[in-house]
Design a protein that fits this description.
Elements (H helix, E strand, L loop, with lengths): L1 H10 L4 H13 L8 H8 L6 H5 L32 H11 L5 E7 L17 H16 L6 E5 L2 H13 L4 E5 L21 H18 L11 E7 L1 H11 L17 E6 L5 E8 L12
Protein name: Serine/threonine-protein phosphatase PGAM5, mitochondrial
Organism: Vombatus ursinus
GO cellular component, one term: mitochondrial outer membrane
């Protein structure tokens, strides 16, 4: 009914700009359930919306947030304080000082297979197969022929041991350990799963930390960075899947719908404009089939 009314208004001679806006609204629309009432009430009530619907650009806006990392140049200066003498020229000059010029290549590595029987983190060491997987991952990274700038890794045992082996293939590359990249429950998955249900407080605690890891490590290059960078992050499946969703501005609740093999490589590219591309997700094609696991 709403579409028919909109169509009649447009035919009756709405101005071009108004018609364009109207048709955009009609085309995007609202999800309709049985009779339309359930879905419409969900969108109308902020309490009923998910985190993704409230915070990120979605179907209602249909736009990419170019300032997703809060590093878009115009957001870093006060454009209202412009000189009456130089005007826009001064603004342009200031913007140049904040513009990123380099591309960041982010390689997210999932740790190798580890001992699941360990009760404490220190007991969850890599298995023999896990060590083989790390060797293969290290060899693959070395074969790419790029100069890696650093390796940032989770402070959990399985990530440290995976990094130890990978580092042998990349001599001279500095290492940084961080608690931010430790495994956890980033956000309650939607749709839910029946075999994994952490307590609500775990999402509350882990989610803030993993979101902090995303904000701290995943962003466009600093304006002072002159050359493209290649950085390795050795961490965990939940962390990587959440980061991918956030970087691509997909609903983060969908993170559990992706699957990552042990020792796999996920490659994100962040352009100076802030545009993000996913080159590979969970690549383990460099491993023989009998070496591939997902534990």
């Amino acid at each position: 009914m709403a579409f028919r009314q909109a169509l009649k208004l447009a035919v009756c001679g709405l101005a071009g700009g108004s018609a364009a806006v109207l048709f955009s609204a009609v085309a995007v629309g609202k999800p309709r359930g049985a009779g339309g009432s359930d879905a419409e009430s969900r969108w109308a009530s902020p309490e009923a919306q998910t985190w993704a619907e409230r915070v990120r650009p979605g179907p209602a806006s249909g736009v990419w947030d170019s300032n997703w990392d809060k590093r878009e140049p115009r957001s870093l200066i006060n454009v209202k304080k412009r000189s009456t003498e130089t005007g826009e020229e001064e603004i342009t000059s200031k913007l140049d000082n904040f513009k990123a010029r380099a591309t960041r290549h982010i390689f997210l590595i999932r740790h190798s297979q580890y001992n699941l029987d360990g009760s404490l983190d220190k007991d969850r060491t890599l298995t023999e197969l896990g060590r083989e997987q790390a060797e293969l991952t290290g060899g693959r990274l070395a074969s790419l022929g790029v100069k890696f700038d650093k390796i940032v890794h989770s402070s959990m045992t399985r990530a440290i041991e995976t990094t130890d082996i990978i580092s042998k293939h990349l001599p001279g590359v500095s290492r940084i350990s961080t608690d931010l990249l430790r495994e956890g429950a980033p956000i309650e998955p939607d749709p839910p799963v029946s075999d994994w249900k952490p307590e609500a407080r775990q999402y509350y605690e882990d989610g803030a930390r993993i979101e902090a890891a995303f904000r701290n490590f995943i962003h466009r290059a600093d304006a002072k960075q002159e050359e493209d960078s290649y950085e390795i992050f050795v961490c965990h499946a939940n962390v990587i899947r959440y980061i991918v969703c956030r970087a691509l501005q997909f609903p983060p609740e969908g993170w559990l719908r992706m699957s990552l093999n042990n020792g796999s490589i996920t490659h994100l590219v962040i352009r100076p404009s802030g545009r993000v591309a996913l080159r590979t997700l969970g690549d383990s094609g460099f491993m023989p089939p009998d070496k591939i696991t997902r534990t």
